[in-house]
Predict the 3D structure of the following.
Amino acid sequence: MAKNNTDEDKIYEIAKRKGFFYPSSEIYGGLTGFYDYGNIGTAIKRNIEGLWRTHYLGLGDSYCEIEPANVMHEKVFVASGHLKNFTDPSVRCTKCGAYHRADHIIGEALGKSVEGKSESDMTLLIRQNNIVCPKCGGRLGDVKVLNMMFPTRLGAEEDTLAYLRPETAQGDYVNFLRQFNILRSRLPMGLAIIGKAFRNEISPRQLIIRQREFTQAELQIFFDPEKINECELWEAVKDYQIRVLFVGDDKEVMLTCEELASKRGMPKFYAYHLAKQQQFFTEVLKFPIEKIRMRELSKEERAFYNKIHFDVEVYIDVFKEFREVGGTHYRTDHDLGGHGKISGKSHEIFYEGRRFVPHVLELSLGIDRILFASMSLFYRGTEGREWDWFAFPESIAPFKYAVFPLVNKDGIPEAAEKIYKEIKSRHTATYDSSGSIGRRYARTDEIGVPFAITVDYQTLEDGTVTVRDRDTMSQVRRKVSEIK
Ligand SMILES: [Zn+2]
């Protein structure tokens, strides 16, 4: 696949140098598929997570966040099917010994998805199309499936009894019965988790896009399946347009929620939440609508238990392609039903005169991918200036303000530090007193700080400062008290 690596390389160079993210255990040569977030990356990540909380927990009265353990009981993954089915097809080069994701290299060679094909079908495709090792051109072995979960030993016990969770979702399902009681037995009930998930990927790639340890933000909504075509807040979204790519189509279409419901048979409860997913990107994160789409997955691509499945995809400029950053999954009673069976504890509830197992609508997002998508989307290269810069929206930027003393004498640093402390009590801010003002602007542009405040001699006289706007580079004088 032809792609221009320049911007990807440049972003990674800035990411490492400025503290967005870099290889984990770096002083020992790094660990494939693991990255550490530095101070700037962590600040941006926390901002995105905070925005996610506000948006998603605001969707319902009985929606709240919980924090289950990362290590979970083996039986959880018997019930969920992960022990049996959470596998990836792997193929080993007979010459150099490198492991590859079989579906990826076949997909790239043939220019189409082979997701869902069996081991023997994939092996056959490799033979028929003479697909060789992308690394050395050597002959590939047979395709084998490998389980992607990380097993772990507990205490001194020899047998594996637990696993690092491969998705946060299971933490919500195993807590359903208890939380349903705690939250006074109301539906729909939403349980949200922002946390780590662990997958032993065969070939982690594209920086923080496909890692072995990553952060998910997921909201599991438990609801009455008989009410899937009802939606209390339908009026608010019925004329709202969603950018959708349907199976079999090669172009996205803009359809209102009403059209999705009446013409495409999409349940209203699902369409409403699909709208809310899109709004998180367009209205909260300020991604342009043309960079986002909700892609419907075919039967072969989606998990068998997902009755409706649209991925959230963002166009990543540096990869020149859309990448999945999340999904909206109608998982029916697969999860609670499975845990009911394996645990022996019925997950049926008695609600409004009926006895049933609630269904689940999962709104799932990958925080690392969103962070990288933001870096790609708001990266401006050296457009209009001599240094690289990011045009992060204020809500995502690692700091809202940077404060500079013009010179390091004559009482200016003291005044600047006082102003910095005052601003920092209300906003995120950083202080920089070294090098020329031009160099300092460059440094803050490189991490996407929207506003830079310079304290100079006039500040001492009338309490005004220079405020420089990152995007326009224009400067205005303002009273410190006028800075919002
Ligand atoms: Zn090879």
Remarks:
- Residues 39-57 form the longest helix (19 residues).
- Residues 93, 95-96, 98, 133, 135-136, 138 surround zinc ion (CB under 6 Å).
- The chain has a mean pLDDT of 95.
- The CA atoms of residues 228 and 269 lie 5 Å apart.
